[in-house]
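Quick one, T. Sequence first:
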Amino acid sequence: MTDLPAGQIMVSEFLGTAVLLLLGVGVNANTTLRTSFGHGRDWLLTSLGWGFAVFVGASVAWQSGAHLNPAITLALALSEVIRWGQVPWYVAAQVAGAAAGAALAYAVYKKQFDTHDDPASTGGLFYTSPAVRAPRWNLVSEAVGTFVLVYWVLESTPFVPGTGDLPPQFGNAALGYAGVAFAVIAIGASLGGPTGYAINPARDLGPRLAYAVLPIGGKGGCDWGYAWVPVVGPLLGAALAAGLYLVGD
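C-alpha cells:
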C-alpha cells in the first residue's frame, strides 16, 4: 500500500489532470469552433486526442501514480493499493487541475470562441452531455465505459525481466501509460457515442465549473441537472470493477 505525502499527490495530480484537460478540451475546440484550422467534427480524431491526452497527462503525473481520475482513485482505495485517507487529496487535485486545464484551453482558443457563430452550444466543448437524454441509461453507459477502463487498469500485469533461462514476460503494463491511452481510445471509439464518455468525474465536473465562470460571450447554461450522471456513473463502474477484481484475486 502506497503512502505518499499529500503535497506530492496534489501537485502531481493537479499538473497531470490540467494537462489532460488542456489537450482534451483543446481537441474538442479544434474540431468544433468555426474559425479553427481543425474545424469539422471527427469522432476518430476526438477519440485519439483524448486518448493521447491521457498518455501525456499520466506521464506528467507519474510521481503520484497518475490516477487523474477519481474513479481510478476509488478503485485503488477499494483494492487497498492506496490508503483511504489519501483519497480526498487525489480527488481535490484532480477536480482543480481539470478546471485549470479547461480554462487554459479556453485561453488558447480565445479568439475562436469570440468568433464562433453558435456560442450557446460551447458548453459541450467542456463537459459531456447525452446524445439521447435518458438519465438511467446514460448512467449505464458511463458505468460500463468506466468499468472497462478500471478493470483493465486493475488487471494490467507488470513487466517481469528475464532471468537465467526464463524469457521476459511482457504484461499489459509493459506498455506503460500508452496502454491506458489505447484503452481510452478504444472506449471512446466504441462506447463513447451515447454520452460523450466522461468515464472520469473530474474530467466532467472541473471543466463544467470552469465554463460556469469563463467570460464566453453568449454562452449557454451548464446543464447542472445532468451533471450528476458523469460523476455517479464512473464511480459506480469503478466500484463494480474493483469488486470483480477482488473476487477473482
